């Protein structure tokens, strides 16, 4: 098992260069699926984070009740309405019929209200069958999904409570035990796990990256949604899930630290979005 603390030099190698003569769509096309009557903001935060990550195109799929509010936030988002207020089999089938063929990655679950468990499983399986790299968060983290994910290009991004729901075991408060547990589950289920906490633990069961944030201001709602968008954005350009998750974690953490330095413990997730271009600029490469 290889374990490393994330550093700028390590992360720079994980972020692919952009071709000087590239065209629209060649630098990543991402799908975001989330939102509900209550949590309308989660997929918006993820979508803007994916764009700020340097992704060319972001398709944001939200329940029809959230469409107007989502569109009003940014003209940069391509909004695909879910035909029902919650995720249903019919809504998934309709969505699958409208997706672009060149979709690279997707993140599912941020604030998402799921009416039918089988609808989520159908969406996940259909995207994986299209070779779309996936990041799963929040309500998408249920045990039933695990059999679909083995040895696919998938990242799961749980906090401690979601980790317990997904794997049936609660992470310890001991840093060493948390690392060991993440590595064990990642290897067992053939996935990359990003366990969020004071120290983020990212592992695919063979390689583990650690990132200690030291930013208590990031407990504010929405920072995990930003992270999910960054993971999907990174996945759209890098097929190595552990590298995509690790680089997203590092960039999210850098932005959080910069914002906390400015605003102290009064930051919001929107502040982190605004900071992303500045912390990512040193990692830009053009060939």
Tell me the total number of β-strands. Answer: 10
- CATH class term: Alpha Beta
- SSE order in H/E notation? EHEHEHEHEHEHEHHEEEHHH
Biggest sheet, open or closed, and with what strands and sense? 10 strands, mixed
Structural class, from secondary structure content?
alpha/beta
Mean pLDDT: 97
Overall geometry? globular
Characterization of the model:
With 287 residues, the chain is of the alpha/beta class. The protein has one domain (2-13, 26-280): UDP-N-acetylmuramoyl-L-alanine:D-glutamate ligase (3-Layer(aba) Sandwich), CATH 3.40.1190. It has helices spanning 8-14, 42-52, 67-73, 89-98, 117-129, 146-149, 160-167, 175-189, 223-235, 241-263, 269-280, and strands spanning 2-5, 29-33, 57-63, 78-82, 105-108, 133-136, 154-156, 192-195, 199-203, 207-212. Strands 1-10-9-8-7-6-5-2-3-4 form a ten-stranded mixed sheet, with helices on both faces. Helix 2 (42-52) links the parallel strand 2 (29-33) and strand 3. The longest helix has 23 residues, at 241-263.
Describe the structure concisely.
The protein has 287 residues and is an alpha/beta fold.
What descriptive keywords fit this protein?
alpha/beta; UDP-N-acetylmuramoyl-L-alanine:D-glutamate ligase; 10-stranded mixed sheet; globular
SSE map:
Elements: E1 2-5, H1 8-14, E2 29-33, H2 42-52, E3 57-63, H3 67-73, E4 78-82, H4 89-98, E5 105-108, H5 117-129, E6 133-136, H6 146-149, E7 154-156, H7 160-167, H8 175-189, E8 192-195, E9 199-203, E10 207-212, H9 223-235, H10 241-263, H11 269-280
Parallel strand pairs: 1-10, 2-3, 2-5, 3-4, 5-6, 6-7, 7-8
Antiparallel strand pairs: 8-9, 9-10
């Amino acid at each position: 098992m290889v374990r490393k603390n994330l550093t700028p030099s390590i992360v720079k190698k994980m972020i692919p260069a952009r071709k000087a003569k590239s065209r629209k769509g060649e630098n990543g096309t991402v799908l975001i699926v989330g939102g509900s009557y209550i949590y309308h903001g989660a997929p918006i935060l993820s979508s803007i984070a994916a764009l700020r990550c340097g992704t060319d195109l972001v398709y944001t799929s939200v329940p029809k009740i959230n469409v107007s509010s989502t569109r009003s936030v940014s003209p940069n988002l391509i909004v695909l309405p879910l035909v029902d207020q919650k995720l249903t089999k019919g809504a998934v089938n309709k969505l699958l019929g409208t997706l672009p063929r060149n979709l690279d990655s997707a993140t599912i679950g941020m604030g998402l209200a799921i009416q039918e468990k089988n609808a989520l499983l159908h969406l996940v399986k259909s995207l994986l069958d299209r070779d779309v790299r996936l990041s799963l968060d929040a309500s998408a983290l249920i045990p039933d999904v695990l059999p679909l994910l083995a040895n696919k290009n998938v990242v799961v991004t749980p906090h401690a409570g979601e980790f317990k729901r997904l794997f049936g075991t609660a992470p310890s408060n001991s840093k060493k035990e948390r690392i060991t547990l993440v590595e064990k589950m990642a290897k067992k289920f053939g996935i990359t796990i990003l366990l969020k906490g004071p120290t983020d633990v990212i592992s695919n069961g063979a390689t583990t990256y650690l990132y200690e944030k030291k930013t208590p201001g990031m407990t504010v709602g929405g920072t995990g949604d930003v992270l999910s968008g960054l993971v999907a954005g990174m996945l759209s350009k890098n097929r190595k899930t552990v590298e995509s998750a690790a680089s997203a974690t590092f960039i999210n953490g850098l932005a959080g630290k910069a914002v906390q330095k400015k605003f102290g413990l009064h930051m919001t997730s929107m502040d982190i979005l605004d900071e992303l271009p500045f912390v990512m600029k040193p990692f830009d490469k053009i060939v």
